[in-house]
Queue: 2 jobs
Job 1
Amino acid sequence: MNLTKPATLADIGRAVGVSAMSASAVLNGSKTSTRISAETRNRILEEAARLRYRPNAAARALNRRKMNTLGLAGIVDSGELNAYFLEILNGVLEAAGRFNQNITVFTLHDWNVDSGRLADFCDGRIDGLILVAPVIAKPQPELFPAHTPFVSLHSNHAIPGVINIESDEEKGAQDIVQHLLQQGHTDILHLAGPAGMLGTRRRLAGFKKALAAAKPRKLVARSIEGGFSSEDAASALRTWMRDNQGATLPTALFCANDASALGCMEVLSQAGLRVPHDISIAGFDDTIAARTSVPQLTTIRQPLRQMGGKAVELIVNREQNPRPESDNIVFPTQTMFRASVAQPPKKPIPVPDLR
Amino acid sequence: MNLTKPATLADIGRAVGVSAMSASAVLNGSKTSTRISAETRNRILEEAARLRYRPNAAARALNRRKMNTLGLAGIVDSGELNAYFLEILNGVLEAAGRFNQNITVFTLHDWNVDSGRLADFCDGRIDGLILVAPVIAKPQPELFPAHTPFVSLHSNHAIPGVINIESDEEKGAQDIVQHLLQQGHTDILHLAGPAGMLGTRRRLAGFKKALAAAKPRKLVARSIEGGFSSEDAASALRTWMRDNQGATLPTALFCANDASALGCMEVLSQAGLRVPHDISIAGFDDTIAARTSVPQLTTIRQPLRQMGGKAVELIVNREQNPRPESDNIVFPTQTMFRASVAQPPKKPIPVPDLR
DNA sequence: CTGAAAGCGCTTACAG
DNA sequence: CTGAAAGCGCTTACAG
């Protein structure tokens, strides 16, 4: 394969018989571009086309101190991007296209271990960095180099100087539990996220608020710690079912997120129970998983794509508008009514024996 | 926010009282690095740490003509990366980590329209470009600048000078249809991909081979054009069911990929049919969707992550080994036996009325 | 052991 | 209207 070198402004200048600056003025639209004679201008354009000239990105970045590239950093768990990250990535890519930005994805494995790497990314290869669900208990300033703007999504802790984007999770949780109550459910199990996480606390708070607001009637409501992954949720539910062998099965499950809801669906399906006929399930997030599951998942939509797009927008517009509207931007949530929630079964069902 | 400028080698040199080159030698490990006195060396290291020096990526890239970044270009359909792309992205990111490469994602919407953009990405911002399932009927050389190495995954057409990575799709299709036959299925409907696509033809060929190899017995087998998306498959199946109202329902569906299998599952579920009790379904790819669906999908695994990793490896090792082992690398497939395929129902079931 | 020079490809003042 | 100069931050020969 013939790896010829790409043409430079100097090459074009030489071919046309002008300086590289003239070529620059014509091709890369600096202020002087209009002051080049039409004649020269055309010859430069022709030659550039002939040589397939493309301005070198590194050279330009060095000069302008701008790469037109934003970084997106998030956790890759068990070698796999999760559906939540994917939604955000979709929104980020879409907005990046609109703003003419490239997106470089940085994968981390553990915020405790890897938060020190963030600063390494700020070496001129990106103009800003978007943190997806960072968990940085002690956000020391040296982790966030001052010359690079950061924006976070669902940050677990406030980071000084970093705008955070989130959604009203508590309200969302409250809404969906209210929906379950309206459907007639009287025995709801909340499969919560990992203890100590902000999202876990907020969903739990919404769960409790909805119950408190319910008309006084015989309600059973409890929550157990599950996790944000299918596996963690499945194993938490299995454990709970073993421990509650023969007791009455809840009529509905409110899960920490879509992934955990699907993990539970799998466990229930293996136990011979049908969703929503025997038991209703609600998730949280409205990721692609909620839309492709069978039955489709009733869930709380966080507008993750818009939130990702907003992150891009904030960084890109930072120059014109360095003072953001707020340091914590909250998006509304929305209940997505789908097939996984129905009315409770007429008769109570016992917790099945897991073979 | 205080956007101070990052420290440069010159800053360090000035502070220590040596030249920027000495700092370069010590910090960025050029050949001469060992020849700096221990004393100077230490003072440079200390100062660099104090100033949080980080070599500027753009400057280094300009000098070395290497960005340590690879591009990944693929289609974003209806604003959404699909699960297939996601698997590859996971493999690419993993391998990129191993080889110390960054990954920039470029989203295209239509190969016909956007293939011209590929060359624009080759402006020094990436050192190589991975094409995901390109469909470029006339792969003219000017689309692929000679100074940038390209690798494709599942290319629909051979591209001169571009190594392609694929899997043995025909064999995979043959295997899974054989599995259906072994389970006792005698009426199999193949919901094929879009007409004219290489992957569609290969799966169809495998389907036919398996049928031909089956012991002669009463078999019904047919195929209809569906598509690679849930929506297209669902609508194709709905149409087929309307057209075949009251006829005998196939006992098994072999779908073009996992996404289309899930689309079909949704249609069947809405029609009150249960998988696999009433009808079996098999997919293709083994994406995350196959593992999170309920029931989990029996499917053909294409090792998409390894394939993505291989693409990275080929580009990174290109310098040492510019002549690749082959210009078309074929990975083996594997049948994933899961819950969506079982034995056919005892009695034939009629094609249901879609309300 | 260390530094002055030149260059990567582009751009931005500044002269003419 | 056009070009010579200087600089972005780094690296690679080449001198001393």
Job 2
Amino acid sequence: MTPPQALPNGTAADGTPPAAASLCLSTLTKRVDFLRAARAPRVVTPGFVLQMRARSAGEAEGIRIGVTCSKKVGNAVARNRAKRRLREIARLVLPEHGREGMDYVLIGRAKVTASRAFCDLRADLIRSLAKLHDRTQ
RNA sequence: GCGGAGGGCCGGAUGGCCGCUGCUGUGGGGGCGACCCUGCGGGAGAGGAAAGUCCGGACUCCAAAAAGCAACGGUGCCGGGUAACGCCCGGGCGGGGAUCGGCGGGGUAACCCGCCGGGAACCCGACGGAAAGCGCCACAGAAAACAGACCGCCAGCCGUCAGGUCGGGCAACCGAAACCGGCGGCAGGUAAGGAUGAAAAGGUGGGGUAAGAGCCCACCGCGCCGCUGGCAACAGGGGCGGCAUGGCAAGCCCCACCGGGAGCAAUGCCAAAUAGGGACCGCGUGCCUGCUGGCAACAACAGGCGGGGCCGCUUUUGCCCCAGCAGGUCCGGGUUGGCAGCUAGAGCUGUCCGGGUAACCGGGCGGUAAGAGGAAUGGUCAUCGAACCGGGGCGCGUGCCCUGGGGAACAGAAUCCGGCUUACAGGCCCUCCGCGCGC
RNA sequence: GCGGGUAUGGUGAAAAGGUAUCACGGCAGCUUCCCAAGCUUUAGUUACGGGUUCGAUUCCCGUUACCCGCU
């Protein structure tokens, strides 16, 4: 058994972020929040669709994240698996790359969300966030 | 060894890092509040179907649900099990079933085909009633349901013909007569036969008859009545009846039994907020006694009588109401927060003992047990890994060995249980029956 | 999660246990100089799988898909 830190891509990403994670992420639960985000700018990648909306003042605090999958993704097992993977990349990426006062919505896609390599999925999210942030500047 | 047929179990494994949701111990913090958040330690966290929502219950509300009636729905061989069931077990009856026996046909033969009978393990069956009633049975066919009589068959009577017959004649032919026969008609007998059809009024064989027919006889079937066995469904055998009851009840229906309705988005509590609002319907504007207030009318309270209401009707008990209110329907407004219900129950299961053919029941000892709430139970990496694909070797062959790729079915608790049904990669185990061979 | 309903040509609808019908549309043909209109013709697993029945779109059971209601 070789220790895991010998592997190059395992240690690089998950160095410190979990400590910072606790302060911001909360979950979107209301249908209206999802509908507002659906009208906001979006980026489409093979594994997911990312929507980002800047909240108006006094609405809520911190970064909020919503995850959703339609019936097109598959049965309950497939949908739950897709949502779990999306939640995991959000947990790893958003504390570092997310912005205060934003609602993010991740939408799963059929087949690909569950099968795409995890590191690719994470890189897709970082790239998409950068794109959206550039666009709103 | 060949062939056939059942049942049960499992449902990828190990480890590293990083997470999620309850519980518990301890510490800290927040909210007006119901309550909530959080650090550290400990321990727990999807299935055999969690699925479909097809049955049965627990539980909650509809005030309680005792009895009867009606309506509606369900179940349906018998017995047992169970909290209960449309489930399970055992039995009965019917059907299927490898093989076997008999008969017939084809073939030189091996064998093949058809019919009938018995029938292994086992499989299938909504399997009460069609002589209580109603309804339906298209097309075809003479006829489709108290049978009837289209064709046919048959003796009789009448008419007709002179083919057979009889007489004469060598013969051609002549004559006689309605006996046989043909044709037509009349009034009957008969249901054996008749293209059909899913189904044709007991079947097969013999006797019998003018022709026929359960008209008679034998066997089979059917019905009725005893007997024997069985708790029963039913089976066996006996006698009697000459046959009456075509099918469909997953058509209406009859019989027996069961069922009040809605469902955890039930329901209860708390917080916050609002207009604690309005319209219509229904019932109704009581009587007596006591006490208090009042000059009195009367009002409030308590008790009795009477009346009304309680999601079909009646009765009983009970509860509520009597001056505006409990009840019903609708319109409008506010909230979309928190907690409980919420997981230990007819629990599940291992083993032993006892009862039972079994399902199952009783007892002892032990093990085990998620409770989320836009919904946790995972993400990722590594190693090992079944199916499957390719190459090589061994072997007569099923196959075995080496090696490279490959990479795990159906599927995610949502109040909880007992079943059923449906989906499912692959693996493991056990049992039964027939035939053949060996001992 | 709980409860209820529907399925028939491409679309919308009928049909009593007995030949699957109607309208619009599509394809092809006739007609016309061409188009329109008109006429003729054509295409169904009655969602799927079983059962009852002589016979099923219809009756019964199971499956699938879709739709509706309930805090």
